[in-house]
Amino acid sequence: MMSLLWKGIKLETSMGSTEFASMVFALIGMSQGVTLLLAKSLLFFCDYERAYYNEYSVGFSGVLFALKVVLNSQAEDYSSVYGILVPTKYAAWAELVLVQMFVPNASFLGHLGGILAGILYMKLKGSYSGSDPVTLAVRGVTRLVTWPLRFLNGMVRSRRRRITGRGRVGRGETGIAGPGIWRCQSCTYDNSGWLSACEMCGSGRARGNGWSLNQGPALSSSNDLPIDELRRRRVERFS
């Protein structure tokens, strides 16, 4: 698990979560498929009494070897594998031999299948431009699973936009901002035609205050609100 954490952080950071997940899914199938082909080949050429694919093995180490190949495929430096200095791109091969020496019961064929799967994955990746089918499938499943969350998020954002107001503030020359809209002469806020009071400052829609589609621009009222009173009403309105 520590090996997966170390390799996963580097690979997922460089390629993104979706592509990393699709790569892991692909390597799981490829490593197991290559291991099965190797077992079939050994049975065919060496004629074992008991086929290797009838033996039991469990673990994620074959995929870890494949991830190691992918991670070090472009490396040009050297790494220390159990105290032995080897080129980093060939570290997986050295680790394959050394692990088998120290842990004889480890699945040599499973580890070898993982290394070959990593090499095959890099070959296929280099010869194919664009998103591979596995990546597209993972993206589709991710969008399907997260659809309820995105739907709720859209509803919350839409409600927030409605709460913040439906009008506009400004002192334009044109009086009609849209059908069914009247402009308050005190604060120049465009209000819905259904409202009888300004949504911004609270001034009533009396004669001489604002205009609508069926009404021309009103004459400026001589008793406009003072600026201090207008500010006080806005604070009370939105506090």
TrEMBL record:
Keyword Transmembrane helix: yes
InterPro entries with a match to the protein in the record: Peptidase_S54_rhomboid_dom (IPR022764), Rhomboid-like_sf (IPR035952), Znf_RanBP2 (IPR001876), Znf_RanBP2_sf (IPR036443)
Main location: membrane
Residue ranges of the TM segments: 20-39, 51-71, 91-121
Keyword list, A-Z: Hydrolase, Membrane, Metal-binding, Protease, Transmembrane, Transmembrane helix, Zinc, Zinc-finger
One Pfam family linked to the record: Rhomboid
Membrane topology: Multi-pass membrane protein
Domain RanBP2-type: 178-207
Compartments, record wording: Membrane
SMART domains: ZnF_RBZ (SM00547)
Alphabetical list of PANTHER family matching this protein: RHOMBOID PROTEIN 2, RHOMBOID-RELATED PROTEIN
Stated family: Belongs to the peptidase S54 family.
Protein name: Rhomboid-like protein 14, mitochondrial
Organism: Camelina sativa (False flax)
Lineage of the organism: Eukaryota, Viridiplantae, Streptophyta, Embryophyta, Tracheophyta
Gene name linked to the record: LOC104746105
